[in-house]
Design a protein that fits this description.
Radius of gyration: 28 Å
Strand order of the largest sheet: 1-2
Largest sheet: 2 strands, antiparallel
Oligomer: single chain
Number of helices: 3
Length: about 150
Amino acid sequence: HFFFSHCGEVFEGDGYHEKNGKPDCRKDFLSLFAPKCGSCSRSVMDKYFTAMNTIWHPECFVCGDCFCSFSIGRFFELNGRPFCELDFHRRQGSICKGCDKPISGRCVNAMGSRYHPEHFVCAFCLKQLVQGIFREQNEKPYCHPCYSKLFL
C-alpha cells in the first residue's frame, strides 16, 4: 500500500501532490504548503490579488470597516489592513464636519473638528469664516455680526 506522508491515509488513486519527494493528499498539501489569504487564512489556489506584500482571495480583499470592494482599484493601508478612502480618513480623523467627506490638503481645525476651508461657515448667514475669526455658541460657529444680532 501507498500512504500519504502527513495524514497517513491510504492512496486511493485520486491523485496526490509531492513536496520534497513526499506525497500528500490535496487537503494536506494545501493546508501545509499553499499560500494563505491575508484575510481568511484559507489556502489560495486560483484567482488572487497581491497587495501589501500579502496574497488575498478577490472576495476577501475588501475594506476593513465597511467591507466594500475596491472597484476602482484604489485602497489605503493602515496597520496592515486595506481601507476605502472614506473609512481610512474616518480612522485618521480627517473627515470634514461640514460635508462628511475626506480632507486632503488644507483644513481648518476648530471646535474639536476639522473642516475644508470652504465648509467652515457661519451657522446663520453661511458666509465662510476666514482668518480664524468667529464666535462659538451651542457648539456652532458664527461670524461676529451674526453673533451680535442673535446673542447680544
